[in-house]
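Example A, followed by Example B.
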Amino acid sequence: VKPCVLKLDKSVSIKIKNKCLINCADDMYELINNLYVGSFIMHENSSLIVDNFRIGPHCIVKIFSNATLKLGNGFINYSCFISCRNSIEIGDNVFIAPNVEIRDNDSHEIALAGHESTKPIKIGNDVWICRGAVILKGVTYELLEL
């Protein structure tokens, strides 16, 4: 697998409890195609907090200035996109299928009175996110016990 593009500002904070694998692929992907390249970018004063997470190939993860991405334990499959301008929290036993987009922001300015361009996202424990899902700002998803 080709390497991941890694860009970290010198002011970032990274805390990994167990391990964090980035741009990892199963043998199947390595045999089929060696074109998977991903990027992991952290801007000024951003934070990454990880327990035990695996991020597959061709994922793009951007943590913007003063934002925090928190990952419990789980797996992000290939070709996913995460854009964190405020706060994204992903719990334990979370499995994210290919081609999922998670963004806590509009990624552009909207000139409307009272418009909030970013809101935190919280994904609780024991969640499977299906292929092609798009999770936008302000979403909280937690498994409810009946």
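Example B, a separate protein, is given below in the same form.
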Amino acid sequence: MEILKDIEEDDLEAYSNEAKQKLSQLKKVWNDERRAKEQALREQEEATRVAQQLIEENKRLKGR
């Protein structure tokens, strides 16, 4: 994680154009992966919430 932090904080001015492009691509890939993981976690939490809601409704209906 330290390397990623260094890359994000780097101003890229001291690097060649090729290196700048590579670093920009790596940052994009890293951010895309992070966003995908966050989205998957949100979807999992929502699925868990809905499943719990259905269980509670099922219990309520069985109690009638």
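On Example B: The CA atoms of residues 13 and 20 lie 8 Å apart.
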